[in-house]
Hints:
Number of domains: 1
Number of helices: 4
Shape: globular
Distance between the termini: 23 Å
CATH class: Mainly Alpha
Structural class: mainly alpha
Largest sheet: none
Order of helices and strands: HHHH
Low-confidence stretches: none
Strand content: under 5%
Number of strands: 0
Mean pLDDT: 95
CATH architecture: Orthogonal Bundle
Amino acid sequence: MQQERKNAIMERFRIHERDTGSSEVQIAVLTERINELTQHLRVHKHDYHTQRGLLKLVGRRQRLLRYLGRNNPQSRKSLVKELKLR
């Protein structure tokens, strides 16, 4: 992922001005990486190393979403809707 794209995502989902590590930002960045790897795997079907990395990223995003749902359900609901995860 290019740094400009990552900065744009952080800008869009941050809670305060210097926010780079909140759950919302992390989930949004992971979603972008997951989408990129999904496109890569559509072309390279037998790239099993990338496939394993993708599954690890999906699991990490799932854990962050679960954490966000426990601590701030309204934020989780709006984030899922905005990222079109369901």
